[in-house]
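OP here, attaching both records as promised.
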Amino acid sequence: MNKITAIVGSMLFLFLATCFYAGAEEPDAAGCSDHPLFTRMQDMRLVLCKTVKFDSFKFKTGKGTETVVEGKRFDIKYQTMAGSEYPGPLAIIRNHQQAITKIGGTVLFEDSRYTWLKIEKDGKEIWAQVDTAWMKGYMLTIIEKQAMAQEVTASAELFKSGLSASGHVEIPGIFFDSGKSVLKPESEAAVAEIATLLKADPGLKVYVVGHTDNVGGVDSNVKLSQDRAEAILQALVRGHGIDSSRLRAHGCGQFAPVASNDTEDGRARNRRVELVKQ
């Protein structure tokens, strides 16, 4: 009888030990996985993840300097497993810095809470922020830099229809760097369609109107929107031979939003250029 009791006791101990071990291996959040750029630190579990097809994020590149990067965004949050030792902010920062430099990347900047990293490899540019202030864990924000896939195509027929229906029309496919007024080369297709519209109707005169979101000062936003509208006007005149008397540039700044500036999606919609019939 004692022998049977001992066997049952041993089996119960093994069962409990197995259950305890299984509980210690806490699972990752459903549907989440590591980003290929970084292996997670030891004894960490993934508790949150989010991927946005196209977004922007501001990365610190030095003391008092920042760069806004656009592309595919990943937010990945890790937490120390129960019963494991938290490595501390400095160890987390140094591990990620060493990981990026070993594969040819760059440490852009660091402070007591964050480090900002960048790598250009195989034709891809990736930016990362490591945030260590997350209750015995850390958060990665990663942007795989890319231009937005243009889903709405600019066309002269679209512009003609919009001007006829409401007297104004938004121009998709116009691109500027953040805070800049130099027209990017990928905007040429949209500019060419504006020129096609104007050449097809020699009597048509339009205002080129720039708009911004509400980030930044009012005066600087008005100037930026004016400068961007002027850049498009000049591209039409110099690049496509449109008579400048048919065009006028105007900057509205943040004063005519089409969406709420409380969200990134709304701000993106408000940063736009329109044609308005004179």
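Record two, same layout:
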Amino acid sequence: MTSSKSIFRIVIGIYLLLFFAYMFLPLIFMTIIAFNANDIPQITPWKGFTLMWFGELAKDDQMWSALWNSFIVAFSVVAISVPIGLGGALLLTRLQFKARNFVYGVLVSPILTPGIILGISTFLFWDSYLNIPGGLWTAILGQSTFISTYCMLLIMSRAQRFDLTQEEAAFDLGATHRQVFWKITLPFLKPALISSMALAFMQSFDNYNTTLFAIGVEQTLPIYIGTKLRSFISPAMNALAVIFIILTVIGAVVYEVRRRREMIKAGVKITPEPAAQVIRM
């Protein structure tokens, strides 16, 4: 029994080692390249430590313009997708009607449609029928068509656990529909709403294929990076990636610290994650 456990731990350890190497080795190499003075993005030959590429990145006006466009599109998509997702989630969880499965299939269909199709169809519709050329507005609409579905599914998973007797009790006490929604329903859905906002922002900020065909001559940051990589691979792109890695790590650490503090305040015991328990077996 002890022998089988040891073999299992070794196998799991090797698997985790290979998994993390596959995930993080490219990031490590990319980080090292960002500090290499070599004009060609390679680790070797090493020509000395430098911060030159971060300076080159700071002077790139096109990059700043693309970054600003990405923020505009992402925040706009959040403002559109989350309310639509909330409405769809409440519709499917509260109302029981014969066409419910059909409506669910229609609302979910955008995430099953290739992003290229969504981008092209959005651009052609607004440009051909309404004479609105491709730009940030069409990119926002193209992204919102499928990101709102992700928000809906995320909010639905929370709404399905809601106890409707709380609303019934509020109505019996004389509360209006608006009061019930703002004082009872929305606070219960708050964690899912926050998660859907974060998901919508990240999905929009990182989107490439739908945005590429819907945005016309404008650029977001992913399109700018893709264009740069096709024309010339500059170490400045690695410097940009390092900045995003640092911001991601900081965000993850802040989130985990806040989560643990809230658990301690609530009196919840912090237990090891399942993966850690498996390794210690």
